Amino acid sequence: MSRSLKKGPYIDENILKKIAGKKPEQAGTVKTWARRSMISPEMVGFTFGVHNGRIHVDVFVTEDMVGHHLGEFSPTRKFVRHGGKMQKEIELKAKESEVAAAKAAKEAATTASAK
């Protein structure tokens, strides 16, 4: 649920203080724990180190991100992958066929250049 228009967007004051009067090149990475802060147009071009509970993830703010929260771009959970043993075998077979195709293409190129 979004915040009411009457209240306006929530932007942490400390973030605004850190970027006030600075250019994005000067500021470097601005570390923050305020994942719930909304991205405003003044933040475009800055790089924020958004804490995900373990480390600070660098987030470069672009115009498309305005209106979203900083925490949306710093995932808190690490996706390993689905599958297991069967999935690993399928990926191995696919990789082997890819390598074989690359070798065949390389041999064809060398025989064509030799002629």
From TrEMBL:
Pfam families assigned: Ribosomal_S19
A single GO BP: translation
Keywords: Coiled coil, Ribonucleoprotein, Ribosomal protein, RNA-binding, rRNA-binding
Nucleotide-binding listed as a keyword: no
One term of GO molecular function: structural constituent of ribosome
InterPro entries: Ribosomal_uS19, Ribosomal_uS19_bac-type, Ribosomal_uS19_CS, Ribosomal_uS19_SF
PROSITE patterns the UniProt entry points to: RIBOSOMAL_S19
One cellular component term from this protein's GO annotations in UniProt: cytoplasm
Gene3D superfamilies: 30s Ribosomal Protein S19, Chain A
Coiled coil, from the record: 85-112
Sequence similarity: Belongs to the universal ribosomal protein uS19 family.
Protein name: Small ribosomal subunit protein uS19
Species this chain originates from: Candidatus Taylorbacteria bacterium RIFCSPHIGHO2_02_FULL_44_12
